[in-house]
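Repro:
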Amino acid sequence: MLMRVRTNGPITITIRGFVFLLLVLLLGCSNSEAHSHKANAGIAVFTGMGDPLPGVANNSADLRIFANGQINFKEIDTLNNAQAPTGPAGGLGPLFNNVACAACHDHPAQGGTALFLRDIRVRDAGDGAPPAALFAVDNMLHAGPQTQGDQPIFPFGDVSPILGGQISSLSNTPSACQLEVMSKSTYSPMLPVCDPTSEGFAKGGNCVGERLSLPLMGDGLVEATADATFQRIAAYEPADVRGTVRMLTEIEQVGKPGGQVSAATIAALSVPHVGRFGWKSQNATILGTASDAYIAEMGITNELNSTPTSTCALGVQQFGVTLQFADDPEDTVDSTGRSDIDRFTDFIRALQPPPEIARNSMAVAGARLFAQVGCESCHTASITTADNPASFIPPTINGMPMSASLNKILSRVTYHPYSDFLLHDMGALGDGITDGIGGPTMMRTMPLWGLRAREVFLHDARATDLPTAIMLHAGQGQAAADAFAALSSTQQNQILAFLMTL
C-alpha cells in the first residue's frame, strides 16, 4: 500500500503495480556481473534521467529557459575577472570544490549525483559552517598564459592535474589559502569520520562528516509542494519514526544580499517555509540552494551571498596570472535579466524525476514488503504538489516570477520520491555535524528515485551495495533494518528487485 498525500483533503491510499521487464538479473549476481547487466541494459536503464518535465519539453518558451539554464549549469568557471567584458566565465575561488556545477552533478546525467566525495564538513568548525574546500586557486596553476603559434591559449594559466593539491591528500603541501581553511575549520586530513554515538564523540573529539552531492532531478516538484503537505506527512508518521519539520527563513540562510536583489525576491525569501533540500533540510527553495552552492562549492559570490568566503588570494599573482579580484558580487544580473543562480534554478526546477521502470511480480511483491517492514514510514511513496506553487516560490533575483505555463506544469502533480524530506534521528548513521536543528544524528531522508543509477549509497558512500546500506540504518531507521534482516533471502531479493526499478 502506498500513501498519497495531497495539499488539501484527507490522505488517500492507492496501489500501483507495474510489470518488471528489466534488471531482475542483477539479483544474485556478482558485482562485475551486475555492472555488466547495467551496461548492457544501457539506454533502457537511464532513459529520461536529465530530461525536462514533459510539459516543459512541449512548451518552446519554457524549454528555451531550461536549455539556457543547462548551458550555465555545465559552464566551466575560470580565474578571469568576473567583471571583465570579454573572456570566459570568471570569479572562481579562492576556495572551491570544483569548477562547474555539472562536475558534482553528472551521474548518470546532468542534474544527478557524483561518484565520489565532494563535501567535507568539520565538527569543530561550528553550527552551519561551510565545507572545508578541497582546492584553492593559489596552488591550481603550474604555468602561466600559453600560446600556440601566435594564438593565445590558456590565457588564465595552465591548470595542474586535479586542480592542484587536494587538501585531503596526505601528500599535499597546503597552500596559504589551504592553511587558512585548516586554521578556520580545524580541518586535518588525519581526522576520522564522525560516529556521533561513540565515546570519543561524546568527549568532544573532532571529526569530519563527508557528503556526496545530492541528485537534483525532480527537485522542482519538491519545491512546488506546500508546507502543509510536509507537516501533514510528519503528523501521519508513526510516533517512533516521526520526522522533524525544519521551518526556516531562506533570507537568513544566505549571506549578505547584493544591490540587485529585488524587494519582491527579498520578501518571498523572508517568509518561513519547510526546509526540504540538503542533507540537513537547510534550504527551502532552489534559488537559495543554488546561491549557497555557488559560493560554498565554487567560491563564487552572488547576489544572495555577496561576501567572499576568503580574500586569501586577493591581488596575488602566480605565473603572471591574478588569482583573485575585488569583483564581488561576481554573479550579477546580466542583460537578459538573469544571473547564473537564476539559470541554475531554471534548469533544476524543470528537471523531471528519474522515471521508474516496469516491475515484474518479484518487484511488485518487493514493493509490498518495502511498506510492510516499515521503510515507507520515512520513504514516502507519493506526494502531490500545491495548487498554485507560484504563490510561494520566489521570483528571480530581479523579481521576475516563473512563467504561468511552468506554474501550471508544476501544479497538482503527484510524484513518487520515496522520501518525506524531513529530518530523522539516524543514530550512528548521522554525520556528526550540526546545522540548526539538524543535530549530529539528524539527517534528511534521502529520496530513493533514481536509486538504480547509483553506485554508492548513504550520505558518505559508506555502502557500495543496497543490502549494506539498509543494514547500516540506525536510530529511527533501526527497526526497519532489523525487519529487513529478519526476512528470508527470497523476500530480501524481492525488496532489492523493487528498489532497482526506482
